[in-house]
Design brief:
Number of strands: 12
Helix content: 25-40%
Number of helices: 10
Strand order of the largest sheet: 2-1-5-7-6-3-4
Low-confidence stretches: none
Order of helices and strands: EHEHHHEEHEEEHHEHHEHEEE
Largest sheet: 7 strands, mixed
Shape: elongated
Mean pLDDT: 90
Strand content: 15-25%
Number of domains: 2
Distance between the termini: 48 Å
Structural class: alpha/beta
Radius of gyration: 24 Å
């Protein structure tokens, strides 16, 4: 998948370099991190480094100029930010034609990454900008509307990959909940994701996982929906987890999630979709 950096999302909208770093760059880095662990290509214009972050400063100033030494965040992300001034460039293999007219809003955008993306995989990554704080950017090629998927914050790329069926449900869950209070590294292959066959089943578990990671442990223990409790039949798990206190919580009236807690992390070891296990403890 070709992902193009939307240079039109930087037009000096930030009042200070600090504002750009805190409001613009941090979100952008989240997207870069998600893209960098894949084999997808991140493309830009030759002159992207000339785009303005403030009225006085261009991107080049903070990446390679003296100002780059003044800010810890720039130094921290120096290697990642080099992606913004080095190739590959889409202009080396331009796909869109100047014979066509490309419009965004009321302006013609021929020669832009938005126009080029219309002829590639229709995915762009944008800095935070009032015009581009939308998940789909409408571009008109002549009279035809083309919607570009727009990535501007954490998990947008992950959601896009799922919607384009690049990821299995298991891959999606493992990536989405990495480094949260839910850990899926120990889940039983036979009684894990393989049990979830329908969209309703997957959505029920996913909705509960989303809720689970956002709550405190005190909140989880008190939540009547989760009904988080100790699983009393220790015989079922004694072979692998004899030294653990196994707990379960509800993901719906029918579905359950089993595992154990260590400090702030809940290690998921299996799912249940038929309530037979729950009836035994």
């Amino acid at each position: 998948m070709d992902v193009l950096i939307n240079e039109l999302s930087l037009e000096g909208q930030y009042s200070t370099v600090n504002e750009f770093l805190s409001d613009g760059l941090s979100a952008f880095i989240n997207v870069l991190d998600e893209i960098s662990i894949t084999n997808h290509l991140l493309l830009k214009k030759y002159d992207f480094y000339k785009t303005r972050i403030t009225k006085e400063k261009i991107l080049h100033d903070i990446l390679v100029g003296n100002i780059s030494r003044e800010y810890d965040l720039i130094r921290k992300f120096k290697r990642k930010l080099s992606m913004l001034i080095e190739g590959p460039y889409w202009e080396d293999d331009k796909k869109h034609s100047d014979d066509d007219s490309y419009l965004f809003g009321n302006g013609k955008i021929n020669g832009s990454s938005l126009a080029e993306s219309c002829e590639r995989d229709r995915v762009v990554v944008s800095f935070l900008h009032s015009k581009f704080k939308i998940l789909e950017i409408p571009v008109f090629r002549n009279r035809d509307e083309i919607l570009l998927d727009n990535l501007y914050d954490e998990f947008h790329f992950l959601e896009l990959r799922r919607s384009r069926e690049e990821l299995s449900f298991e891959e999606y869950v493992r990536l989405k909940f990495a480094d949260t209070k839910l850990n899926f590294s120990l889940i039983d292959d036979k009684f894990g994701f393989a049990l979830l066959n329908t969209t309703d089943e997957k959505n029920a578990f996913l909705s509960s996982f989303d809720k689970f990671i956002k709550m405190s442990w005190d909140g989880i223990l008190m939540d009547v929906g989760f009904e988080y409790k100790t699983y009393k039949n220790r015989n079922i798990f004694k072979r692998k987890y004899s030294d653990k206190n196994i707990h379960k919580f509800r993901t719906s009236q029918k579905y359950r999630c089993f595992g154990y807690r260590e400090n702030d992390t809940f290690f998921v070891i299996r799912f249940e979709s038929d309530h037979k296990l729950s009836d035994r403890g």
